[in-house]
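Consider the following assembly input.
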Amino acid sequence: MPRLGFALILTVLLLWGCRIGHGLDAGPPDGTGIKGTLVFHGEWPQETADIAVAVYKKLPQSMADFFSIAGWDTTVTLGTTRYEYMVPLEEPGNYEWIVVAWQPKGGFWNFSSLLGCHHVGSDSLPTPVEVRLGETAKGIDIHAYFDLVRGADLPDRDICTGFLPPLPGIPKPVGNTGRESGRPGAGR
Amino acid sequence: MLDADSGEPLPSASIVLLGTELGTLTDLGGHFRLTGLPTGSYAVSISMVGYTPQVRKDVRVPPGDTAQIEVHLAPTAIEMPALVVSGSKRPRDFVDVPTTVTLVDGNDLRMDNSLSLDESLDYLPGVHMVSGQVNIRGSTGFSRGTGSRVLLLIDGFPALSADNGEVKWDAIPMDQIARVEIIKGAGSALYGTGALGGIINVITRDPSPRPETRFQMLAGVYSDPTYDEWRWTSGKRAFEGIDISHSRQVGRLGVVVGLGQKWGNGYRENGWYRRGKGFAKLRYAFRATAALTATLNWALDDHGVFVQWKDRNEPLEVPVQSQGDKTLSQKLNLNLCFYRLLNPRLGYRVKTFVYRTGFDNKLEGGTASEAYKFGQELQLDLQPADAISLTLGAEWLGDRVFSSDNLFGDRTGYNLAVYAQVEAQATDWLNLSSGGRYDQYGTEGCTAERRFSPKLGLACQISPQTRVRTSLGWGFRGPSIAEIYTSASFSGVAIVPNPNLKAERSLSYEIGLHRRFWTRVTWDLAFFWSRYRDLVEARPDVAGVVSFRNVSQGRIAGLETSIQASYGPLALNGSYTLLDATESLDTGNVPLPYRPRHMASAGLRATVLKLTLSAQLTCRSRISRASGLFPEGNRDLIALYLVDMSAVYAFGAIDLSLKAHNVLNYNYAEVERNLGPPRRFSLGLSGTF
């Protein structure tokens, strides 16, 4: 009789347990946005005040465009070699310019001091990213070169800013390739 | 010592002279002998697992002669605790303690296949862990590793780290535990700072009178994550460990020595650990009534650090910037206690200890700390009259912390205290206790504080089956050095010192009933109420700079009930705790963070010949409020349902245990951005020779 009672209680317990489910599920997603890894190259400048990731819908064509930022992440941990960033966005669509910007102590954000942008493989322009509603485009990694703010002439300078028209305060990179429209669907 | 039913002798039964440190075990013939006792009258506690304990009062030892007692212990199917040490700093009959006490037997812990003690305590009535921080009736919440509101003791010695005032669970010698006593409610009247919500006293086993070797081996694996999206590695996540110890008597010296190691790669990224530990307990008996006990406990823990998940869809991975984060930590307790019984009415003990903790963080900022807590205590145990016991004591404690400038810096703290407690057996059925402790404490650079913490208690045996208890106690917790002096930056959040931090205070009241039905059922019910003042929390200011501050008042009221029953080979246990935990803010009342409103557990055990099967269910309601530091709030802190199952088979002196934790593979988070362990299977093998 006790064994039967034990078996009964155990059965009830298991049946009840099966109704509990698995608790937290695989969602909800992070929401509409872009995420990836920042990989920093070179020594961090002593005068670093902040680092930000900024996302633009279109490649800037005027000074006004620089202030049309669709989303940003300013939580980058200073001094690290890698950082997982996440930029929430209000709407889905194609985003053409995802950049890392450097701010010196006592200074302002200055897009002449870009450290890098998202571009894939042999692309000679920033690689656009397609973002779907409610989904986060992942793996949008960016290499950031501190030597760029020290004046080094690295290929990324041309790739990330070479398309810019002449603008006041923004130096024109050597070997400007001109602007091409972004290619959709490169982001995951 | 005989079995009351069969008349068979009972070996290894425990005999303790109440109020003293003196005791022994029965031999194979059920005999025991305590020699060299001063002339006088003693109260003797006799207990053994599976039997109803007895207390023989007024056992008179005549001059030059021997008192002989014959005890017949009646078998019982339910667990019957005999002694409690922590309630009055010396052995006391369980039925005389006016507060709710939960006892855990060391043998049960050995069969639990737990990786550390906090796992085993998590299902007890009124106790719950939040990511390793212990709560007694919701006392602590979750303070991110700084400032436990429950005082941990090892053999009565303080074991909270000097720098952040926290419990180091990996430092507790699991395989050496004789029993754990959990005293609920404020306990500063005897123990001072830290005992805000209760006390956990881990009592290690004494040297065995006969040569004895024990071993315990454990190995297991974690199940794969429920969802493929969460899978982060193709390798099996496993753990293993071994502990071995030996105990014997060499003349007047009793010895326990043990070594152990554990290894695991963890169920999540950075979850790996490598642990080593050593334990030694030496007891030298100068005479029958005087002994020096020295305990050395050492633990090394090299482990990865998981602070928060990478994101909600990759909850078993760390952010890329945290990959490779790890900490190397060491803990060392050295405890010395000299006890002398001068006569049946007067004994004293002198205690001294040092507890060293150190860590070296290999992560952002590279912080490190080396902290020493040390102290001395003199305690007098008096019995001015047959029915009155008096405990008097004085204690001083010191803290010394050496830390990197980007953490706490180099700091010192002190605590001076005197305490007294009187217990009176007013009648055969009424026991009264009252006491208090005066503390003066301070930390370098801060204003010293003084505090008096009284307590009152009453235990009343209103019938042979029914006992009522009630108590009122005050508690406090001086802020830890970490809370006052942390100057650091973590994940972009700046934390600054606050030398104006004051102690947290509490007042606890409870009334409880313990009832036994026939010989098969016990039932316990307690109503409790606690008020907390000047609770310390890490909060940001308007500029986003974080410091620890006295931010709020809290009130926790509720009830706790538990039942144990047995029927033939079946044993049942169940408990339920209701917590109404409220924080008073300027803007109104809100729930205290990280406190579930409902907690329940139920267990069933069946023993068939040498096989014991058991199942345990633990439930907690959803956490209604979290820290507020994360934008998702309490979104992921869902209700918790855990089912554990085990089978233990006894092969003579060897026990083989198979256990499945979290059988349902239930996914839960106790704090933000931390997924709890998935299902795991473990195989344990333990034996005593």
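The domain at 2-76 of chain B is CATH 2.60.40.1120 (Immunoglobulin-like). Ask yourself how this observation constrains the way the partners meet.
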